[in-house]
Amino acid sequence: MHFQWTSLALVAAAALQATTSQALPTNMISCLQAIKGKSYLITPSSSNYTKESLTENYLFNYKPQAIFHPATNNDVSAAIKCASAANVAIAPRSGGHSFEGYSAGGQDGSLIIDLNQFNQFSIDKKTNIATIGGGNRLGPTYAKLWANGQYLIPAGTCPTVGIGGHALGGGVGMTSRKYGVLSDNIVSMTVVDPSGAIKTASATENTDLYWALRGAGGGSFGVVTEFRIQAYKPPSKVTSMTLDFPLSKYSTILDAYAAFGATASEDLMAEMNLDTSGNMQVQVVYLGSKADANKAVAPLLKATGKPKSSDIREGKWIDAAVRFAWMQNSDLANPKAGDSNYAKGRSLVYRQALNKKEKDIIYKYLTAPPKGISAAYLIVDLWGGKINRPASESAFVHHGAVIGIEFVTEWGDAGTKPGKKACGPCQTWSLNFYKEMLAAYTKGQPIQAYQNYIDKDLPNSMDAYYGKALPRLKTIKKSVDPNNVFRFPQSIPLN
C-alpha cells in the first residue's frame, strides 16, 4: 500500500468526534483517494457519477457517497477500512442486478465497492475447478469456460448478472438438477472481511464464513473477490427445447409440471414462463441427444397433452446457453441487456404443488393486467434432483423444494431514462397479486422465498429467506462484523 493505515484510521476516528456528519464523506473520500495504482474512484462531482450509481433497475436511484473500483485485494481492504473508520455502509457490487437496488446500498450514502476489475479466470484441467473473479458476469464466464476446454457451471440464464450475488445467494441454474445450485459447487472463496482482513473461506479454513457465504453472503459478511467453483464437462450433444401451451390449460399444466420434477431425469432442467399475453412456455435444457430429450419429456407431455407448438434443437452446451440468454446479440462474451429499465420482482419457493386457490389467483391476475405495463410474467423453475441433495451443509435452506416462482412486472422500455414517474397501477397490481399468493400459501408450511429475488415488501423476510439458518447467521454476523459495516435494508442483522 501507499500510505500508513494506523495514522489514517486515527485521523478518521478523530474526525468522527470533531466534525459534523456532513464532513464525514469528504474524509472518507480523501482516504479513498490515497489508494493509488489501477483502482479508481467515482464521486458525486465526477461526470459519470449518475451513470455509475444506477442499478439495472431504474426504479431505484440511490445516491452513494462514492463508487470505488479496486484493482487488488489490498485495495479492497483499504477501501473497507476507509468506510469503516467513517461509519459508512458498504455495498459490494458484482453485476448490479439486485431486485431492490441493494448493489447501490439500498439507501443513500453508502460506499459501493464495484468489482468490475476482478475479471480473472483460469481452470485447473486436472480437478476441473475454475477460478473466477468476483467481477465476472455469467455470459462472459460461460464464454471463458467454453473457450478453455468446453466446461460449464450450474448457473442462471441471464448473461449480464454478476457471478458474485448469484453464487452467494444460491444460484439456481440451467443444470442445477444435475449438479446442484451454484453455491453448493463453491470449493473456496477469497473474501475481504469487515476488518479488512483477506481470508480464504473453505471447508477447512474459516468454516463458519464458508457456511454463511454460500446462501446468505450477498453483501452481509464482506467482499468476495474470487471464487473457486467446481466445473463440469457437458456431453457432446445437448438439446434445448421450447414447448408452447395456451394459458387456458394452466391448471392441468401446472399440476403436471410440478409432479414431473419428482421422476424426471436429472439431465433435464426446465423453466416455465406464463405471461399476460396468454402464453405458457416450458423451456428445457437436456444434457444429451434430441432423441433422449424427447424420451425424457414424454411423461410430462402425456400429462399435459400435445403442445400447440414446439422448437427442439440439438447442438452443443454453449448453443443452449446462448439460446436461453435472450440477448439482443448472440455474443456471450459481450452481452447486451435488453431488459426493461423499471421492474418489480418477487418470489416464492414451494415444497408442494400449487393448490387450486393459488393456481386460480395466477390465472386471475395474468388475464387482467394493468395499463402501463410493458411485461408481466411468472417464471416457474423446476427444482428437485441434485438441488435437493447438497454435498455439504450451507446457509442455503431451500433444498427439498418442488418449484420456485419469480413474479415480475415491468414498465417503460429499454430506451426509458432514469427519473420516469413510477407506474402506480403496475406496482399496485404486482403487490396485490403477491399478497394474495402469500395468503393462499399452503397452511402449516412456513413461507419460503428465494433470497436472490429479494423483496423489501415480504413480511418476515429473514425467516423466509434463511429459515433455520438464521440464528447461526446472526451469530456469525456478530462475530465477523460487530460494527455492522456491511449493511443494507435486508442484510443479516446482528440480533
From TrEMBL:
Cited InterPro entries: BBE, FAD-bd_PCMH, FAD-bd_PCMH-like_sf, FAD-bd_PCMH_sub2, FAD-linked_Oxidoreductase, Oxid_FAD_bind_N, Oxy_OxRdtase_FAD_BS
- Cofactor(s) required, per the database record: FAD
GO terms assigned for molecular function = FAD binding; oxidoreductase activity
Which Pfam families does the entry mention?
BBE, FAD_binding_4
Q: Show where the FAD-binding PCMH-type domain sits.
A: 60-234
Keyword check for Signal, yes or no. yes
Report keywords, A-Z: FAD, Flavoprotein, Oxidoreductase, Signal
Family (UniProt): Belongs to the oxygen-dependent FAD-linked oxidoreductase family.
Q: What is the protein's given name?
A: FAD-binding PCMH-type domain-containing protein
